[in-house]
Amino acid sequence: MINNGSKGQYILRSRNTLTWRGIASVKIPSFYTSSTDWRNGKVDKDQRRGAVFRAASDGRIWNADLHAAEMIGRYLFLKPKLETIGAALAA
């Protein structure tokens, strides 16, 4: 359904269903999830090579899709980097 260009309809219907049932929902962006190390927040596209994710910090290896799913699952618990917050406040 999503691949046929009806992603917006899917999001609308799922949000309406969850609201109707009283279930909270959070929309999480999927940008850079497969190239970000969730342990330290480092974004580097060279960390993902095909189906393999190799962390630049310590060389640990994961399945890239599972690592991206882990990143999405931990999204609400990630802390922003201090330099990012400082730059946002200065602007």
Explain this structure.
By secondary structure, the chain is mainly alpha-helical. The chain folds into two domains: 1-30, no CATH class; 31-80, no CATH class. The protein has helices spanning 7-20, 64-73, 82-90, and strands spanning 48-49, 52-54, 61-63. It has a three-stranded antiparallel beta sheet with strand order 1-2-3. Strand 1 (48-49) and strand 2 form a beta hairpin.
Structure described in brief:
The protein has three helices and three strands.
Total number of beta strands: 3
Low-confidence regions: none
- The percent of residues in helical segments reads 25-40%
Would you tell me the overall average pLDDT?
80
- Order of strands in the sheet with the most strands? 1-2-3
**Structural class computed from helices and strand pairing:** mainly alpha
Q: DSSP helix count?
A: 3
How many structural domains does the protein architecture include? 2
Q: What gyration radius follows from the Cα positions, in whole Å? A: 16 Å
State the end-to-end CA separation: 41 Å
Strand content: 5-15%
Order of helices and strands: HEEEHH
Principal-axes shape call: elongated
Main pleated-sheet profile = 3 strands, antiparallel
Keywords:
91 residues, mainly alpha, 2 domains, three-stranded antiparallel beta sheet, 3 strands, 9% strand, elongated
SSE blueprint and pairings:
Elements: H1 7-20, E1 48-49, E2 52-54, E3 61-63, H2 64-73, H3 82-90
